[in-house]
Design brief:
homotrimer, 113 residues, alpha+beta, four-stranded antiparallel sheet, two-stranded antiparallel sheet, 35% strand
Chain lengths: 113, 113, 113
């Protein structure tokens, strides 16, 4: 009733720059065009701080603040690893976290591992 | 100081329909009324794409866009598995991901496993 | 290409009170000042319910609702465990969940475990 997947979370900031344009846009483009993965979701945090120790906070008066962004996806282990390999050099070191999980599937006569 | 739990994340969209009404509402009703679980939280993504490849994006002019929704909960493994079983047939196949985790508890003389 | 980390998620509510002031602020202050951890991000849920069964929902007319908050961070296992120890007694029992994960790093001649 479950197949193995890898969940990946990428921690960046809204205003972070990639190679040519916004980092978030570059990551999404890579995941969408070069290594299609299932279930990519982008979350915006309301506050946070990173290695620099800067505190980012969202409030009604600062809608365009540089808030934390998490880009999450999951897929079969091989696909997820290939996607992460694509992101090497684009995403700052240490900002991609991944773990093994299970994806629930409805057994249709042929129970899955 | 920690007990074993299962973390469950369900990936849907805001406008997705369930059996009779909005899918998010049906999932929350099931988790709340039929199989009470601890700590249900609903998150709204700001962008994302699924198997269809459509890109959803939130901006100030499209407050009612069909954004990604993640419904997350955690509980003892047996309770979480029973809750997922209830959701079979309601949530599209492959949209529920779960993994084992630890829930920190303060030892009160009787250390927990 | 990956080092082991522990991912920690703390589940509270926006209006929850800590020892002296707002709980979220107290947790962030502890993590920032007392036990610096990498990558702290605060997420606000749009709905949820806890052990009390109360349903919290965000809508355009209730911007100040008492919504669910998740404070997430990851770090080396020893640092994450020390951070959780600091939070004992501040965060209500059973509201901290953690699991082992991998943090992707780019091998620079010296492959990491």
């Amino acid at each position: 009733m479950s197949s193995e997947v890898v969940v990946v979370r990428i921690y960046i900031h809204e205003a972070e720059q990639g190679r040519r344009t916004n980092l978030q846009q570059e990551i999404l483009a890579l995941l969408h065009d070069r290594q299609r993965v299932k279930g990519v979701t982008v979350f915006r945090g309301v506050a946070g701080f990173g290695a620099s120790g800067t505190v980012h906070a969202a409030d009604l008066l600062r809608l365009v603040a540089d808030l934390p962004i998490v880009i999450e996806f999951y897929d079969e282990p091989e696909v997820a690893q290939a996607a992460m390999k694509l992101l090497d050099g684009l995403v700052p070191d240490g900002h991609i976290v991944w773990w093994r999980a299970n994806c629930r599937t409805i057994a249709d006569g042929q129970p899955q591992a």
